[in-house]
Design brief:
The protein is built from 21 helices and nine strands. By secondary structure, the chain is an alpha+beta fold. Among the domains are: 122 residues, Butyryl-Coa Dehydrogenase, subunit A, domain 1, CATH 1.10.540.10; 127 residues, Butyryl-CoA Dehydrogenase, subunit A, domain 2 (Beta Barrel), CATH 2.40.110.20; 133 residues, no CATH class. The strands form two sheets. Strands 3, 4, 5, 6, 7, 8 and 9 form a seven-stranded mixed sheet that branches. Strands 1-2 form a two-stranded antiparallel ribbon. A hairpin with a 2-residue loop joins β1 and β2.
Length: 566
């Protein structure tokens, strides 16, 4: 099966996406035929225009000269073809020049793009987040000036958060915005790690910059968001300077810039001191796409490893009939285990990501308020899981796929080592995976006493692991009252446990929809080689819960004792 056939099966046969679209007035005209036509054209564009630039992007990379950045050969032409064909506007509103299609189709597009050429895909990767941020928070004047260009992709956008001393702790940001008499703001400060901060792909770049107004309180609650374009409305160059581009482990086709703002002209987006609220709209949109990046990168690594394993012959496989000749290494159990295990992550991850993208549209467009709330709960809880678990697996799984090649995988000829290098950054940007775990457990689960998570888990089919996770969630809520540091120690384990329970649900759905041999091997691999990790994570969490209360008792017996903690 091709990737497109797999994607179509998951969307149409497992998730019944067309029926879900029909329940939303905004997508009543979207059916399976239209969706597959869009994805077929997307696949053709990716294969013909973007994938061939993968190697040149890595080997030539971006060049920097006196503040100007030149992208690798072919990148600019491919990007011009991309936006002129309408691909960035798939899910943007029709009134903004978009095509008004479901979010999942855009998600699949970016999954395909990331797998084909992660470095190139970094350029348009923030467009949807910038679009959502401006649509929700920008003034009518800013929307009129910038939203159509962002929706179409004619102009690209950046997210300028990080400073040398302020990474995950945005409360330390020092950049300043000084109001001017004409309603604009002069922005001063430096930002680092800015993907696409300067390039030659588009005529303009729209920077969304976190900074402080003069009367701002200290900490993250004092941050405001400003729109600072590279080119001002009168056609003059704004005072935004690219000081250098970073030399990186991977993603050589994407310029990672240090930007300096020297009284650069900008405009406030949203309310003063409410910049994080506006920026989180952009970041949350990006996090689902980063999870899909992980799935796309892992699938690209798997495709290379699978092809190589079919062609490479070494020794005789244990079950081979005596033939006197070596067998394809795909017949050897060690290689089958690697390939089937990564396939289990890819297929299960796709189902979870596509379901989440469908829920984004339900949360925004469903006529029933209860359905919207349920969908929003799913998205809030599952998005950090997708971002963290599947970017972790993209790197670990791509490394496992490199192992299939043996020594050949370590050299550039086969292209697998580039995927390993490129995949590593996805565990770091858009909030490190540790931050995702803290966000899930501290801000999403403990904040409401575990109610939302327990409700979500209760809606999944019941089994021992799901019930154990429900009990563990309740135990953590109660134990955290006695030890505020405890959840920080266990956040990573908790997120992994949630990911495994969700994957178990996903594979249950896939297996119920088809008994085809295509899905049998990864389903078996999931239950044999992946799901047992849940018991390890559960044991780690139980070990760190207060020994006075748990000893070696089942958690169901522990909860009454824990509930006595104030």
């Amino acid at each position: 099966m091709t990737a497109l056939n797999d994607i179509g099966f998951l969307l149409n046969n497992v998730l019944q996406a067309p029926a879900q679209w029909q329940a939303l007035p905004a997508f009543a005209d979207t059916d399976a035929d239209l969706a597959l036509q869009v994805l077929d054209e997307a696949s053709k564009f990716v294969a013909s225009q973007v994938a061939p630039l993968q190697r040149v992007g890595d080997e030539v990379g971006c060049t920097f000269d006196a503040g100007k950045v030149t992208t690798p050969p072919g990148f600019k032409a491919a990007y011009q073809a991309f936006w002129q064909a309408g691909w960035p506007s798939l899910s943007c509103a029709v009134e903004d020049g978009g095509q008004g299609l479901p979010a999942v189709l855009e998600g699949v597009l970016y999954e395909l793009l990331a797998g084909a050429n992660h470095g190139w895909t970094m350029a348009p990767g923030l467009l949807h987040g910038a679009y959502a941020c401006l649509k929700q928070h920008a003034s009518p004047a800013l929307k009129e000036q910038y939203l159509p260009k962002i929706a179409s992709g004619e102009w690209l956008a950046t997210m300028c958060l990080t400073e040398a001393h302020a990474g995950s702790d945005l409360g330390l940001v020092r950049s300043r915005g000084t109001p001017q008499a004409d309603g604009s703001v002069h922005v001063n400060g430096s930002k680092i790690f800015i993907s696409g901060g300067e390039h030659d792909l588009t005529d303009n770049i729209v920077h969304l910059v976190l900074a402080r107004l003069p009367d701002a309180p200290a900490g993250p609650k004092g941050l405001s968001l400003f729109l600072v374009p590279k080119i001002l409305p009168d056609g003059s160059r704004n005072a935004v300077v690219c000081e250098r581009i970073e030399e990186k482990m991977g993603l050589h086709g994407s310029p990672t810039c240090v930007l300096r703002f020297d009284d650069a002209t900008g405009w406030l987006v949203g309310a003063p001191h409410q910049g994080l609220n506006a920026m989180f709209v952009m970041m949350n949109a990006a996090r689902l796409h980063v999870g899909l990046q992980g799935i796309g990168l892992l699938d690209a690594a798997w495709q290379k490893a699978h092809t190589y394993a079919q062609e490479r012959r070494q020794m005789r496989a244990p079950k081979a009939t005596p033939s006197g000749g070596p067998d394809p290494i795909a017949e050897h159990p060690a290689i089958r285990r690697i390939l089937d295990t990564q396939r289990a992550w890819i297929d299960g991850g796709r189902l979870l990501a596509y379901h989440t993208a469908l829920q984004l549209d339900v949360a925004q467009h469903h006529p029933d308020a209860g359905q919207r709330a349920t969908a929003q709960r799913w998205c809030a809880l599952v998005t950090p899981v997708l971002k963290a678990a599947f970017t972790d697996q993209a790197f670990a799984g791509a490394s496992a796929c490199l192992q299939v090649f043996g020594g050949h995988g370590y050299i550039r000829e086969w292209g697998i080592e580039q995927i390993v290098r490129d995949a590593r950054v996805a565990m770091i940007y858009e909030g490190t995976n540790e931050i995702q775990a803290i966000d899930l457990l501290l801000r999403k689960v403990l904040a409401d006493g575990g109610l939302a998570m327990r409700t979500l888990l209760a809606e999944l089919p019941g089994d021992a692991r799901r019930d154990a996770l429900i009990e563990t969630t309740a135990a953590l809520v109660l134990a955290a009252k006695a030890d505020a540091e405890l959840p920080y120690w266990l956040a990573d384990d908790y997120l992994r446990a949630v990911a495994l329970v969700l994957l178990d649900w996903a594979w249950g759905r896939i297996s119920a929809a088809s008994s085809d041999a295509r899905w049998t091997a990864p389903a078996q691999a999931f239950h044999t080689w992946v799901l047992p990790e849940f018991d390890m994570r559960l044991a780690i969490m139980r070990q760190r819960l207060p020994r006075t209360f748990i000893k070696n008792k089942p958690l169901a017996q522990v909860l009454p004792a824990l509930s006595a903690i104030d």
